[in-house]
């Protein structure tokens, strides 16, 4: 059986233990593989593992520590989402259309992680082409939440979220175009960061001009998320929108004395579960006790922003399908997930002028958030309006308006991909009926260090790293 204490040791602490010879990379990597073997039959969070390669790299890591040449992530077990290409390894993106695709290149993020010494032990499950908040694909089936296997871990980085929460790896990579890092982080009780647009070079989609796409870490501690970001950040010619490196405090100080935060529970249109709201307010109170000023605000948004994002996402997927294949959609329909087909059909029916007009509307939403962030260091709101729903549900089950005129939504994340320059981080806020809840911190533009600093303050006041699911 895997050593659970080792399973739940943060990457930053593993690095210290390696240097002091308290534990070896070989022991940790073997333990990671053992844990995957134990939980994957129940969770289905990994679609591929690489035991022989990982153990060989662990032996090399031991030599690096012995010779004094160890790198920042030397010997740290890592999972990569099956949406992200990896050279020489099958990358399916959860789709039968790509079940035999073997990329011949690594994206910048993977190159930087491997150059820092991280060891990829496997690739994690994703819904088809990362298009759902539920991780269930035609190729790999349903992925489950380690806190309750009848519930979803979220998506689209649901395999990564479940892998971290269950102790398979301390850090996993995810992608986020509408909350795909923050959703599983929130539902699995871990940390998930959507950095500022361009902070991590995005080079795995066929356009360098997408303005909602991000890489981000899923981790059990803010320190580990910071370490990941520090390794992979920085401009690169593969991404014209990529940003220069920013200075990150390590570890993040967590000092929020005198800072001013805006609190908006509903964002003006979301029906939020009472327990989720109570835990969000507990987070706000913890920050207040840490010296911050909390002001409740009305952002003044409405559900139209979700319609706009859904439309943009549909256009993106319709174009991506045409880029992938010239096979008509009807000929592939039976091989594809219902949600992906719905998106593509919607995108194909949208005219270009309407899509351009959406940008005018999108701008008005940004100006309302921008005005709040001009007077506040960050906005606090829920990451998810509810706890993890049953695995059988689907994204389109969340589109009803209640008697109060509020949208019965699942996530509260996609709208912040529409303000992509603002980093957004999800941190645990407590539990409701045994399932995790989360607070989302949306910081000022390009200030990733600020987002991590606030998250560290929450972690310090409301520690969660000692909590893990009984699986």
- Helix content range of the residues, please? 25-40%
State the major sheet: 11 strands, mixed
Overall average pLDDT: 98
Strand content: 5-15%
CATH class of the largest domain: Alpha Beta
User: What sort of overall outline do the alpha carbons produce when their principal axes are compared?
Assistant: globular
Structural classification: alpha/beta
Q: What is the N-to-C succession of helices and strands?
A: HHHEHEHEEEHEHEEHEHEHHHHEEEH
- The number of helical elements comes to 14
What does this 3D model show about the protein?
The strands form two sheets. An eleven-stranded mixed β-sheet has the order 1-3-2-6-8-7-12-13-11-9-10, sandwiched between helices. With 471 residues, it is of the alpha/beta class. It has helices at residues 4-7, 11-19, 25-43, 51-67, 108-115, 158-165, 182-188, 222-232, 274-289, 304-324, 329-332, 338-348, 352-375, 448-461; strands spanning 46-49, 77-81, 119-124, 136-137, 141-142, 171-176, 191-194, 214-219, 260-263, 293-296, 378-382, 424-432, 435-443. The protein is built from 14 helices and 13 strands.
Give the topology.
Layout: H1 4-7, H2 11-19, H3 25-43, E1 46-49, H4 51-67, E2 77-81, H5 108-115, E3 119-124, E4 136-137, E5 141-142, H6 158-165, E6 171-176, H7 182-188, E7 191-194, E8 214-219, H8 222-232, E9 260-263, H9 274-289, E10 293-296, H10 304-324, H11 329-332, H12 338-348, H13 352-375, E11 378-382, E12 424-432, E13 435-443, H14 448-461
Parallel strand pairs: 2-3, 2-6, 9-10, 9-11
Antiparallel strand pairs: 1-3, 4-5, 6-8, 7-8, 7-12, 11-13, 12-13
């Amino acid at each position: 059986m895997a050593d659970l204490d080792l399973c739940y040791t943060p990457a930053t602490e593993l690095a210290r233990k390696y240097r002091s010879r308290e534990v070896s990379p070989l022991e940790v990597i073997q333990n990671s593989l053992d844990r995957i073997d134990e939980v994957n039959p129940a969770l289905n969070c990994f679609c591929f593992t690489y035991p022989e390669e990982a153990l060989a790299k662990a032996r090399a890591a031991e030599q690096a520590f012995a010779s004094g040449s160890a790198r920042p992530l030397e010997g740290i077990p890592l999972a990569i989402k099956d949406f992200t290409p990896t050279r020489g390894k099958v990358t399916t993106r959860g789709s039968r259309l790509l079940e035999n695709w073997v990329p011949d290149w690594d994206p910048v993020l993977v190159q930087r992680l491997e150059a820092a010494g991280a060891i990829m032990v496997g690739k994690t499950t994703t819904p088809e082409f990362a298009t759902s908040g539920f991780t269930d694909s035609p190729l790999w089936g349903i992925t489950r939440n380690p806190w309750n296997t009848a519930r979803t871990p979220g998506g689209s980085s649901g395999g990564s979220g479940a892998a971290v929460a269950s102790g398979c790896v301390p850090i996993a990579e995810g992608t986020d175009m509408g909350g795909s890092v923050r959703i599983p982080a929130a539902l699995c009780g871990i940390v998930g960061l959507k950095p500022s647009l361009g902070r991590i070079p995005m080079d795995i989609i066929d356009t360098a001009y997408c303005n909602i796409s991000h890489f981000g870490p899923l981790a059990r501690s803010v320190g580990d998320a910071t370490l990941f970001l520090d390794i992979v950040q920085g401009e690169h010619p593969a991404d014209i929108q990529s940003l220069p490196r920013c200075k990150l405090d390590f570890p993040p100080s967590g000092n929020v004395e005198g800072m001013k935060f805006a609190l908006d529970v509903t964002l003006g249109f979301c029906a939020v579960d009472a327990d989720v709201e109570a835990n969000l307010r507990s987070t706000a109170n913890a920050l207040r006790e840490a010296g911050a000023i909390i002001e409740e605000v009305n952002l003044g948004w409405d559900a139209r922003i979700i319609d706009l994002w859904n439309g943009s996402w549909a256009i993106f997927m319709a174009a991506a399908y045409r880029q992938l294949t010239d096979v008509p959609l009807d000929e592939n329909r039976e091989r594809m997930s219902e949600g992906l087909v719905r998106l593509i059909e919607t995108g194909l029916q949208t005219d270009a002028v309407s899509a351009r007009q959406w940008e005018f509307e999108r701008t008005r939403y940004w100006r309302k958030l921008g005005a709040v962030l001009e007077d506040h260091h960050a906005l606090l709101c829920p990451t998810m309006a509810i706890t993890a729903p049953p695995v059988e549900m689907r994204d389109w089950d969340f589109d009803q308006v209640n008697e109060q005129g509020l949208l019965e939504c699942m996530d509260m994340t996609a709208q912040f991909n529409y303000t992509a320059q603002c980093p957004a981080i999800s941190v645990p806020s407590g539990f409701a009926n045994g399932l995790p809840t989360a607070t989302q911190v949306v910081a000022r533009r390009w200030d990733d260090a600020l987002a991590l600093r606030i998250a560290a303050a929450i972690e310090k006041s409301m520690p969660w790293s000692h909590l893990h699911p009984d699986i």
